């Protein structure tokens, strides 16, 4: 879920990097997996409760991806309301439209997080999930959110903090070197911890905040991700092949015993525009 403007060029969610349909399929698979993640669902449920979307309101979903949250917002705003999803990736927009009931109150447009295609003070509720971490100028995106919110309008920002990545067990120095690779996954890997400050800097009043650790089930360990991080650490000279292989052995043994822990934390903040 990402709006395109000034995104990190290497991000897999950066629209110009997605040309083939197989690339879109991979993104859809990743977003669907996130939709099914228990931690993501709990944090979203908290944020939707805090936002309290009401019938007749206008909602905006920035970086709407496959449209799951746009549809949720549209349902909450019915009757009389509507939700607009902003998504720069045409493949993801097509999937969102295919999954949305024709003639419904959820619709989707191409757009940029730094220049939202809606008038000033015209939106009651903004949802922005896992977008700011990919932007080179996230502060400008939050200022843009403040611009489109009406006085009293609410916003929910949800984002990952990649520096909270935990992998256990293993030699602490090896684990630290390997998990440091997660910090290259985003333009701002510390985005989750900055949400409150960015809202306040844009003149918005923070009403609530929340967090959720996204836990990796030891029975379905993300071995491709672990190996990708391990290989990256070896290439960068942070660990030796022997250290990497020892870590793999420790993790494999722990997974067999039900003792492996792998997680990253998402944070959320809900705020309103005063006035």
Automatic annotation (TrEMBL):
Domain of life: Bacteria
Alphabetical list of Pfam families matching this protein: Methyltransf_11 (PF08241)
Annotated ranges, domain Methyltransferase type: 60-156
PANTHER family: METHYLTRANSFERASE
Protein name, entry field: Methyltransferase type 11 domain-containing protein
Native source organism of the sequence: Streptomyces siamensis
